[in-house]
Amino acid sequence: MRELAFAAQLNLHGDPSDASFTEAARGLMGCPLPVAANTWTGAPGKGALWLGPDEWLVVAPDAERRALESALRAALAGRHHSVVDVSANRTVLELSGADARAVLAKGCTLPLHAAAFATPQCAQTVLAKSQVLLQACGTTPVFRLYVRNSFAHYVAQWLADAAVESAASKDLDSDRIAARLG
């Protein structure tokens, strides 16, 4: 687990049926806006996550935040839209490794097995009583969790504890099996 500090996060609203809106956004982001529910496009650190039928979270490296926000505002001027910088609203945690799904499953009700939740899916959900935006980013597996700042320490601590429990339960199971085979 690691924190991905200072990620640019822009909340974008607009009409996905307006071709000029979607093309302007695509031209600036280098990827189309996802139109399928609970999916994302682009790369894990630079792309767009679907939040609703007319809402996306545009993510990019922090160094690009101001330029991207200004460019989106300029390109979308005159069209029905909203661009709001929400970068200070959430912390991004990345969880990876063979046990990542099992660790997340300890506190999340989404079906997280690879056939049900894989790249390029994302979902707004609850993890350990905290609202998060969960993004499946790779086959390793790798997950990004967009967590409200006020809950970030709690969620990070909860993930660490869940990872320790997962490792301990594996050790217990292997000890039991070894004892039976004796």
Number of domains: 2
What average pLDDT do the residues reach?
92
Give me the CATH architecture of the largest domain, please.
2-Layer Sandwich
The CATH homologous superfamily of the largest domain is called Heterotetrameric sarcosine oxidase
> How far apart, in Å, are the first and last alpha carbons?
36 Å
CATH topology heading of the largest domain: Alpha-Beta Plaits
Shape: elongated
Structural class: alpha+beta
Q: Low-confidence spans: pLDDT under 50, at least 5 residues?
A: none
Strand order, biggest sheet?
A: 1-7-10-9-8
What sequence of helices (H) and strands (E) makes up the elements?
A: EEHEEEHEEHEEEH
Q: Helical element count?
A: 4
| β-strand number | 10
Features:
elongated, Gyrase A, domain 2, Alpha-Beta Plaits, five-stranded antiparallel β-sheet, alpha+beta, 182 residues
Explain what the structure shows.
This protein is an alpha+beta fold and 182 residues long. The protein is built from four helices and ten strands, in the order E-E-H-E-E-E-H-E-E-H-E-E-E-H. The protein has two domains: 82 residues, Heterotetrameric sarcosine oxidase (Alpha-Beta Plaits); 79 residues, Gyrase A, domain 2. The protein has a five-stranded antiparallel beta sheet with strand order 1-7-10-9-8. Strands 3-4-5-2-6 form a five-stranded antiparallel beta sheet, covered by helices on one side. The radius of gyration is 19 Å and the shape is elongated. The mean pLDDT is 92.
